[in-house]
């Protein structure tokens, strides 16, 4: 039991020692991610460990997968900063779990079961966090694909009414009822670039790269190939694309419905077992 107390004090001592050594070196970095990540009070120490041991370089193949997801979620410009902060959160969470493992083992007077479970939890939590990040990326792509058909239909109606593609995109952003959706946020950034007189083809290419979704690439390519011609060529191309996007939206909705129904199976099994115990226990006791 003494060894667990020693390990607990060692971890706490190392953390506070590194906190004093780091000082305010990473305050600006941490402040820029305020309210975006948990355990920010531990981020300076974790960032110091990342830089001191060159974790980003030595574990490049593993961290590259995280960075790819950050590119999809936040874009190329801030992906590296988000990746560093996310790795810092992984380190912080692992340290908290490890400290909690030794502390609870100490309080339980050296129970090896708690130690074993705590170590397993400490090892598994980073994988769970990365898996959650992947689910966030998947959810973002599905949200974009769900809203894209409506945007394409608006563009078709507005272009058919005589507006240019640029004006149609601006109208889609300004008249939306859900400004916080992933697609509208990306379109808002695109519109701001157009208003700033950036080249239209470059703006749409940036939109395609930022979203990282095949359907968005098809949408932007269709516009770039036909917007100068205008008229029926653009309308027909967008209508064909709209038909395909609505079919994909139906498939996504169907898949989500199936996933929701499958998630209900486990609670129903638990309820069934509970009912069987409630009904069967009196009969067993009587026998």
From TrEMBL:
Keywords: Cell membrane, Membrane, Transmembrane, Transmembrane helix. The keyword Cell membrane applies. Pfam families: T2SSF (PF00482). It is a multi-pass membrane protein. The chain crosses the membrane at residues 6-23, 86-107, 113-131, 264-284. Its main location: membrane. Residues 155-282 form the Type II secretion system protein GspF domain. GO terms for cellular component: plasma membrane. It is found in: Cell membrane. It comes from the Bacteria. This is Flp pilus assembly protein TadB. It comes from Oceanobacillus picturae.
